[in-house]
Amino acid sequence: MRGFWVFCLVLVCCFWCTGVRAGTLNDRLSQFPNWDTKPVISAVKATEDLVYPDWIKGTWNVSSTLVEMVAPLAPDFVTPGFEGNRQFLNKPINFLVRFGEVNQQQPQVKGYPFSLLKTQNVLRTATLTKLKTKSVVADRSFNGLNIARATLGDRSILSVNVDRDNPNRQVTYLPGERQLISLVTNRATEQPNSNQFIATEISQQIFRSTAQVYLNEVETTTVYQRQKVSNVPITAEQITAIYLSPQDPSYFIATEKPVALYHYHLNFYQQKDEN
Question: What is the pTM of this model?
Fold first, then answer.
């Protein structure tokens, strides 16, 4: 069980858009670690992916360091594997991640974005067309595999596959016919200024083995900061929160409160061969 919890912890750091009221994510971050419930954010559609600002495009060498871990319900309740994760405190883990451009289609009428037409009556009679736009998204399969292997070892992960029809569904295959299925269900983003980007995702995770099925819920909130004058082009602060699923026998001890919180600091270094 300890290995499973460690694995969940690193997998959600795969740099996984729906807008929310300005300042809500920033406010939540300022309240850490006093989180009493999950954030109220929008559900995602199967075809939507998390869209990043253009300045994160490329391949990056990332150094990720666990700098703080909190068990909010201790000593009454501590998740399996929490104490085992202390071995990662203040020890940088390095891996490659990449973000690239993809084509996304947006409904259009006579050149006007669909979002601007919602308040007009023309939608009833007009014929919608599709306008392809470029969006920067994470390579979830590449990132997930690199992060998991950097943390657990090359032999601990067989592959990471992302559903072709649903970028929010990811399956990680482990030795011994084990699988970890992660499905992003809710998402929000904010961009307070041109050099900062905040993203939150909530994922349902299902761990399957020949002996058991285990479920939990993970929230990942990350603040990306572009550094104009620095040898580190991008830095980030990332919070991972673990929630119990209703199927867990201990669910009513925690209800909607997180049972484990992990704070990471990340440095992004541009890959030298990247154009």
Answer: 0.81
